[in-house]
Task: structure prediction
Amino acid sequence: MRRADTAFALLLVVGAAIMIREALRLPIAWTAIGPGAGFFPFWLSVGVAFQGVIILIRSLRVPAPPGREVPFVEPEAWRPLLVAFLPMVAVIAAINYLGIYIGGALYLAGYMIFVGRHHWTSVILISILLPLGLFLIFERWFLLPMPKGLILEHLLFGR
Result:
């Protein structure tokens, strides 16, 4: 477990450093119309990097347990992990076509149906209202354009 924690912490720090570098390509300060486009990605990445450093320090301070090390993921836990992870990879791969809102809604609906086994009314309500709320927050209030994908671009702007 200790090695997995260390590896995961290093992965978080490296990923956050990449995200910070990309966020700094955008304005991160307050602008005339609100926070710059890089404000939230920058501070979110700083928070992830900070947490990664804390996990790294904790993993290095904990002594290695004697004997066989406990696996990071138990063998029976791989299936539910892959059920959640592989659709997420598919949505990210199709983000240019689906956009973040439709892709997020599909992922959320699929997760609620196949993993959570929630009632269909809850699935429809949450998988529509949550992306709609995020759309209003990012696109309307913060004026931060997010990837909309071909479908939403066509529906909203006719492009």
